[in-house]
Design a protein that fits this description.
Number of helices: 17
Order of helices and strands: HHHHHHHHHHHHHHHHH
Structural class: mainly alpha
Helix content: 55-70%
Distance between the termini: 59 Å
Strand content: under 5%
Number of strands: 0
Oligomer: single chain
Length: about 425
């Protein structure tokens, strides 16, 4: 009997490739190609904008609220204030996917002929640009918080951090600084730690990209969408989107997203996040299965958000205002590092000045806490870069402190991509 053979265009690989090509064509639309200068400026703009978004996200609950914004608005009290907090938080759920995509795209930008040596060298560099500052910052936080515990053991800040000095054992102390098996005391460094671990496993990702890209996307994507706990990562979204970013780079997928696609993706994402914010009106008490489906849907929407944000950023970054914001890109890592637990302390202090616990004053507290934290992070970074550049370089992961000095404002906003730039993580 003669074996039937599918036409080439109907083979699974060809079918998937055709559909991906159609999506890429639609995404790009009428967008003009990004020059190296434009791309560099867009990346810098995205870095600082996304980290500011993280500050909003890490604000968490209002001091007088019993409901976490990750759940949605509070249907019982302060609906306006909690809805805005939750909506902004859900909108910035696209931060980690986009930063991971950018990291993967930058990481795998090397000549394939020297892949082995390039992978080793780039993984080695991530030790000084990611893990070493992680240890430094968390050791600093640990020392400050432990001193606070010794002298003011009832201080409110100690109730907000992820270590209890009164009961912590040696393992908790080690993780508080090194983040080996659980999040460090500066919990925002979970992302930096996972990026570093992903870089260490980049040879495996590289093999998957070259020999089984579809299988890599399916396996890592399934782990992400199901929130499957991978043994060596705190969260599965970092390796998945890092892998996608590498695929985009190695397959030469265009980075441009057209105006129409950006508009459609952006509106879709905002509507989905609004519905997610209002979900407690419908999903409270409907059962674990329905709530799990809601979590999966929220997780999947983050890919839409990442694409929408990138489409928007590559336009705004090339405006005069965007160019000014992009100049702060070199401070993104520093702001990411310093913003917590400073943000929590700012919340505690500012809440004591609130004249009333109304929705308007709660929103004022929300915005003021974030603005003060961002101003402190950016301002202290500028001062440190100017007066103690060696310390700034260490705390900023070896990133060039000269780029953060006010005296350098007259330099070109977006220099052409260099080999060093293409090997640098975005946060």
């Amino acid at each position: 009997m003669e074996r039937s053979v599918l036409p080439a265009k109907l083979m699974p690989g060809a079918f998937v490739g055709t559909r991906i090509g159609t999506c890429v064509k639609w995404l790009r639309g009428d967008a003009r190609p990004l020059s190296s200068k434009d791309l560099s400026q867009a990346i810098s703009f995205a870095r600082i904008t996304l980290v500011v978004g993280l500050v909003f996200l890490h604000y968490g609950s209002y001091p007088n609220s019993k409901v976490t914004p990750f759940h949605g608005l509070d249907v019982n009290e302060h609906q306006l204030a909690t809805a805005i907090n939750s909506f902004v938080l859900f909108c910035f759920f696209s931060v980690v996917p986009l930063l991971s995509l950018m990291s993967g795209w930058l990481f795998f930008g090397f000549d394939e002929k020297n892949a082995a040596s390039a992978l080793f060298e780039r993984a080695r560099r991530r030790f000084t640009s990611l893990y070493l500052p992680l240890v430094f910052w968390n050791a600093l936080f640990f020392a400050i918080l432990f001193a606070l515990y010794r002298f003011l053991p009832e201080h409110a800040l100690l109730r907000e951090i992820n270590i209890d000095f009164a009961t912590a054992a040696r393992r908790q102390y080690v993780n508080a600084i090194f983040g080996i098996t659980s999040q460090p005391v500066g919990f925002q460094f979970w992302f930096v730690r996972d990026l570093f671990v992903t870089a260490l496993f980049s040879p495996l990702l590289w093999i998957a990209m070259k020999r089984a890209p579809l299988a890599g996307v399916v396996v890592l994507g399934a782990c992400w969408i199901a929130d499957f706990a991978l043994p060596i990562f705190f969260r599965p979204d970092v390796p998945f989107f890092f892998f996608l970013g590498g695929l985009v780079r190695t397959r030469g997928v265009p980075l441009e997203i057209g105006r129409e696609a950006t508009k459609i993706l952006g509106i879709t994402y905002l509507v989905l996040m609004l519905l997610r914010t209002l979900a407690p009106y419908v999903f409270d008490g409907v059962g674990e299965t329905a709530e799990e489906l809601l979590l999966v849907a929220t997780r999947a929407a983050r890919l839409i958000g990442a694409l929408a944000c990138w489409g928007l950023f590559q336009r705004v970054a090339l405006t005069e205002v965007g160019a000014r914001v992009a100049r702060f890109g070199s401070l993104a890592f520093f702001l990411h590092a310093v913003h917590y637990p400073f943000l929590e302390q700012a919340k505690i202090v500012l809440w004591s000045f609130l004249p009333a616990e109304t929705d308007v004053w709660m929103l004022f507290h929300y915005l003021t806490s974030v603005v003060v934290t961002v101003a402190f992070g950016v301002g202290s970074g500028f001062l440190l870069a100017r007066w103690w550049p060696a310390a700034f370089a260490l705390m900023n992961g070896g990133r060039d402190p000269a780029a953060a000095r006010p005296s350098d404002r007259d330099r070109p906003v977006a220099p052409k991509l260099s080999p060093r730039l293409t090997d640098r993580a975005p946060a």
